[in-house]
Amino acid sequence: MLSRRHAYRFVAILVLLGFAAFFFVPIIWLLLAPTKTDSQIIDQTPLAFGSFGTFGHTFHDLTTYEGDLVLTWLKNSAIYSFGGTALAVLTAIPAGYGLALTRFIGRRALLAITLVVMIVPATALVLPLFLEANTVHLVGTVWSLVLPFGFFPFGVYLAYIYFSTTIPKDLLGAARIDGAGEWGVFRRIALPLATPIVGLVAFFSFVANWNNYYLPFVMTYDNSQYPLQVGLPILLGSSPSINPVAATGGQAVIYRPELAMATIIAIAPVLIVFLFAQRTLVAGMLAGSTKE
Amino acid sequence: MKANPHANIKWVIYNGNENGTGVLQSKFALWNRIGWPSDAPDVMFDSQNYDAVQLGTAPYNDLLNLKNYVPASVLKNYAGDSMSACTTPSGEIVCLRNDTAADVLWVNQGLYTQFFGKAPVPTTWGGIVADGLTIKKSHPGYIVGDIGDEFDDDFIYWGNGCPLDRVVGPNTVEIDPTNPACTKIDSLLDNSGLEGNAITTTYVFAAGGFPAAKVVMMVGPLWYGTAVFENGEKAPHGVPDGTMAAYPPPLSVLGQPITGALGGGLWLVSSHSSQPAAAAAFAEYMSTSPNIQNVHVDAGLPDYAPDQASYVAAFGSVFAEPATTGKAWETAASEVWDGWGPTPWSTDAAWASTVVPGVTSTPPSTLGKEINSFALALANDARLAGWTVQSSSKCINSFGGSGC
Amino acid sequence: MTDPLVTVAPGEHASARRGRRPRWRRDRPPAGTSRSAGYFFVALYVAMLACLGVAPTVYAISLALRTPDGLSFANFVNSYHLPQFIPAFKHVLLFEAIWLVSQSVLVVGLALTVHNLARRVSATFRFIFYLPGAMAGAASVVIWLFMFTPTTSPFAFILHALHYTLLANTVTPNNLPVLFAIMAFWTGAGGWIVVMHGALNNVPTELIEAAEIDGSNVLQTALRIKLPLIRKWIVYMLVLSFAAGTQLFVEPQILGIATGGEVPPQWSPNQLAYYLAFQLDRFNEAAAISVDLLVFGLLVAVVIVWRGKLFEVQ
After folding, report:
1. Contact B344 C259 (CB under 8 A)
2. Which of A232-236, B300-304, C305-309 has the lowest mean pLDDT?
3. Any chain C CB within 8 A of the CB of B151?
4. Are C269 and C120 found together in one domain?
5. What does the mean pLDDT of chain B come to?
6. N or C: which end of chain A has fewer CB within 10 A?
7. What is the 3-state secondary structure (H, E, C) of A196-232?
8. Do both C16 and C139 map to the same domain?
């Protein structure tokens, strides 16, 4: 007779495998889809593998759509996202540190405001942000996206939690007594210990920037300025697989395999970042919770 | 382009207001606020029919009045009433139609002859239903119609003169599901016993592939010929070239020679263009030149009547009975009912969110049961857009559908 | 959380023990440190906060209050009376209810289950769970579009059991809150499971061992010992998820494109606001709806923060 422990473990693994399938199978499907032709996607079993030849054909169809459009979108996404993340890290880390380990009047108020702004729905601000950007003639430029992306109150809050829980107070006290200015303390004590939180903030910022849809849609007005996320629904609408009327106006080469491949390109960078950031991620999150 | 090498026209293809997504509307609305950028497109090709009038009138007013640029003789030559989608209430012409997508009766010539011999092709909806009953009994599995698509309202209601989107005044629309044209077509189809059977509910672009080889006849736009039935890549379960023929669309249930339409693009010229004359000339060229309006370049019949003859003459062996098909296309283009739109909302989207779930579910609902929710969705869209709704239906006149 | 600076300045330490000084006074820089250093660290952030956080919020409110006849609540009233307004809020609330309840139960359950396994196995499962988090937004909708279509989906056996043969069957209006909950769970759960896992790692092992010695089985240990200690993180998850959920826009918008309008373009409040602004050029009413969402989210966040004692500002 199985011991209680073993029975429990068995059931647990089953349940976990079931959920793992739920999370993982769509991704496998997505990766396999470009290897099949449109009819094969429909007729064969969903997780069948097509051929490398078809994969190449799909890739070609997608990357030559409207002349390099998809690659342009990829480039745009990279510029907006990396730019925004760099700015976010540059602002959030010192700000979090300042809120956590320095004292100034208005500190609490600033923290409270940060919490509030963190929760405000971003879409409520898209139009006012747009009008603001227009007043300074930034609409359609890279800055119209990089600047809002660089404003990252959640990152500030994460840095605040991190610095207030991981910097040993004796170290700080000692450095201050030694006569180091606040900047010195920051540079010599906090920064070297900040790698996990920099990684964490950069990670969250990058993922949010890369996956953002509404703001880029409003701030960009030309096909050539769109990031991938905005371009993906455009592809959907031009695909006869999805929108039958698209069959009428001229050539149409975007079918299901191409859509799947476009989706893969759209998620690949974040996926790669996920894989590499895994260790830093976990370390950062754990560090933030050790003293709770 | 060759004739005007110095004109640097920027033109873009848009999906327009496809099913309410409002790509063009959103761009125009923002540009109207902030000023039009210097590299905004001069000419736009829009695949949605209702955009032009909305964008050419208040609060947009962003389209050039082409009456001032295109000779009246050219404008006159656009087929039938199809230019109504380009004419604003004040009489301005704000677009040029690229192609017409009028509904015709598609027939699989081989199958029809096999099942019905030399009998003439039906000319009424009643005739189609009668043939459907024969097929259901003797040749089950074959198809005479479809009500499961997201745009079948364009064939069933528009094509029968049912006023669910009829502009009767400035910002006033008639939405009346109690009109006899509506109730008659509903009861004809619902009582036929063919729904879910010979009148299929399979979406014509279904992911499973539409059984095009099983279609004996079907009312559909003229571009179905190559896009749904005969094109191997676009229609994986299609039929070879030379199988389908088009016949004139059936008379409406009230006996009128009208038909609906689905698609057909518009050429829009921005009124903010820095070179309006050149832009207008470009649009005119694209919609009238035989080089463009050619069956190998464009799947739809040119709306510009003088091009139609050469277009259909170039059919070759693409369709069975090319002469009949060509004639049917031209006839249909001139029969498009003018009582449907243009309104700034998508009737197809309303249909897709009300009727389609109903008729494709298990057990399926009927058109008669769903028409009120369809009409109500249209009324809601109209009211959201600030339009007044006229109706003799208690359901539509109640707020929020409380009287339904 | 202890304040690392309290021990530095003895004078301040003594008065802090008395606890009579007002809280803001305790933020005075301790003797020996620069007054303005703190400001220097937050300067750039504050500038951005003013320009990109506060200013747009104020502008949205002013847009919402502006009418042709001066400042009033007319836009709020008018937008409330639109036939799509109440249904949109009902849709989102139903979605939130289904999503938050199922997510809380499943995330906590999965985290607890995964926590008890061997390190490598646990890490592998957690990795698989949070992989979909990379696909938020438009990409996940495209993926799930294919998952919801019976002829292309690996989950077709479930769809067929429900008698669904077409995408149109899956995406019927009544199913939408559930579909969006599934998508939101798919992309969001993994990250939260990792967070919960981290929180569970901090539960002192002595407590667990003590409970086991007392005869508590795995389930009881989980419910009575571990769960209360991660309660704070569960609340955190609820707050952030709720706020994110009210913004629902991309998913219904793209699903609407893909189904030819079966999801109406004004299904969610944000879609309605977008439609008003960009389709009908009525920015003021759109701003009013945005402010409605804002106030709604804020109210709930404040209540949860107060009751959850979560964001103690020290």
Report:
1. no
2. C305-309
3. yes
4. yes
5. 82
6. N
7. HHHHHHHHHHHHHHHCCCHHHHHHCCCHHHCCHHHHH
8. no
